[in-house]
Amino acid sequence: MSEADIKQMNDMRKGGIGVSRIYCFMASLAGGYHNVPYTTRDMHNVNAKQRREGGLDAESCLRYLQECKANDPTLYYKEVVDGEGVLQYLFWCDSTSQIDYQVFEDVVAFDATYKKNVYLSPLVVFSGVNHHNQMVVFAAALVADEKKETYVWLLQQLQTSMKWKAPVSIITNGDKQTKSAIEQVFPEAHHRLCAWHLLRNATSNIGKPKFTRMFRDCMLGDYEVRTFQRKWFEMVEKFGIANKRWVQDMYERRHSWATAHIREKFFA
Description:
This protein is α/β, with parallel strands linked by helices. It has helices at 3-14, 19-30, 40-71, 95-104, 148-161, 176-185, 195-206, 209-220, 225-239, 245-252, 259-262, and strands at residues 76-81, 87-93, 107-111, 123-129, 135-143, 169-172, 190-193.
């Protein structure tokens, strides 16, 4: 199988599609089964090889963490493997990260948008900002999927490793699964959408630099609610985007991103 075929298969597998259906799809793209230069057995063999390689890498990773723990006794890590011994989740944080969290835990960024690696494992990073306005990493994790239950497990590991000290506020990219998990594990924490992701989405959904600038002003401007409302509707009317689903969704979720609506909550 070519690298392109393997990537296509992996993407479809992540969507829960079985090998037989993927093979049918590949055949339709190629104009018939006779034009597909591999069989379903070949696809299963590739899957098995990826799982073996992933397992070997997981063993190396766990062995490395065990060696680190010998020099850093308070290093915390937790893993979950499936019935075949393949790594599903791995969470870790060292002593420096734990100390940083105890000082700078007020605001935690929960970023689950890092690119997946060749073993289809998303990288999740928990981070914050120190007194020098520098990013500090509190913990990191590799996960096999992006379900609510997975994020609940990750947040529970963060909770345990940081001695049950809860963050005041959590910033995310707005994924519904992460939001739901936060509400379950840290129900008292304030939730805010990441400004960087919102500006990127504003650009991709509307595609007008002037709109993005005006949206940024609505988002970050220290306005009273009444002023925010006026500026928002003036902007929407100016660009004729009242019927855009993304615009409607952003307005419905304004209490999670507009400074006018969250000025009394701590997100420094």
